[in-house]
Amino acid sequence: MKTDKLERLQAAGWKVGNTEDFLQLSEEEARLVALKLSLIGAVKKSRIKRKLSQIDLAQRMKSSQSRIAKIEAGDPSVSLDLIVRALIASGATTRDIQAAFTTNERAAA
Amino acid sequence: MKTDKLERLQAAGWKVGNTEDFLQLSEEEARLVALKLSLIGAVKKSRIKRKLSQIDLAQRMKSSQSRIAKIEAGDPSVSLDLIVRALIASGATTRDIQAAFTTNERAAA
DNA sequence: TTAGTCTATGTCATAACTGACATAGACTAA
DNA sequence: TTAGTCTATGTCAGTTATGACATAGACTAA
After folding, report:
1. CA A108 to each of CA A72, B16, B56, B76: distance values in angstroms, whole numbers, following the listed order
2. CA distance A39 to B94
3. Which B residues 60-99 touch A at CB under 8 Å?
4. Residue B82, CB, strand D, below 7 Å
5. Which residue has the higher pLDDT, A93 or B14?
6. How far is it, in rounded angstroms, from Cα B25 to Cα B43?
7. Measured in angstroms, what separates residue B69's CA from nucleotide C9's C1'?
8. Closest Cα partner for A105 from B102, B90, B92, B93?
9. Which of B78, B84, B90, B95 is the mutation pick for testing A, counting most A CBs within 10 A?
10. CB contact under 8 A, A60 and B88
11. In chain B, what are the domains?
12. Which nucleotide has the least CA–C1' distance to A68?
């Protein structure tokens, strides 16, 4: 764990002893969430760019409109698999997907 | 669809009329599979690089050794979520993940 | 040999995800 | 108003993914 974060947490009154596992996990969890959000944004951006309605995209990937809405709303029931499938189906290029990751990197830094 | 691919498929005797949806889907499916494989490779590479056993990595991400083995074996029961979580837990940097995408891009080109 | 470490594979109950459906809200155009 | 299009949200039965466990194989070192 990074020292500055550790200090901030300790200053906030956190006991940072055997809770390292927990903190470590949180940081990784946060990274995954940030990544998902980034990809979700890319889905919506790509869909709009191609002038596709949620129904259009749903048909392309053999899903349903409600699921597309949930994807874009960041619903917790949506898997990373589905997000990426939507991204691909929406016509996003590999470069677009990479860009989403890059955005994620900036946000995490 | 790209013309060369279309021609290859037609030459192979495929009827490329109203089966476009199917072919389109296959192409997207293939892209997802390629992406997964690429990330799987990155997981193993990152794990080995950090000298972690499958058990070590499993503990880091609160999973099990058998699941790590399945990830690396490309078992169909493994989700993209789990692969990416393993990748993050293995200590892979965002740059490493991006590199996996780059590899994928080359493979798809 | 024996023991230890690491990885692979199968199974299973539980948990998580999915598409489909209903329904509602926002907005636009007759 | 009315109808149409698009999106949001809730529910649910069926499907898929999960961790845990057992077990086996490969390899190394005593």
Report:
1. 21, 45, 25, 31
2. 14
3. 60-62, 79-81, 84-85, 88-89, 94-95, 97-98
4. yes
5. A93
6. 27
7. 9
8. B93
9. B84
10. no
11. 28-108 (1.10.260.40)
12. D7
Count the residues in chain B.
109
Asked if A106 reaches chain B (Cβ–Cβ under 8 Å), the answer is no
Cross-chain residue pair B24–A98, CB shorter than 8 Å: no
Would you give per-residue pLDDT tens digits along chain A (109 residues)? 444 444 443 434 444 444 555 566 688 899 999 999 999 999 999 999 999 999 999 999 999 999 999 999 999 999 999 999 999 999 999 888 888 876 655 444 4
Judge contact between B36 and B83, C-beta under 8 A.
Answer: yes
Specify the DSSP class assigned to residue A95: H
CA angle B5, B10, B16 (to 5 degrees): 90
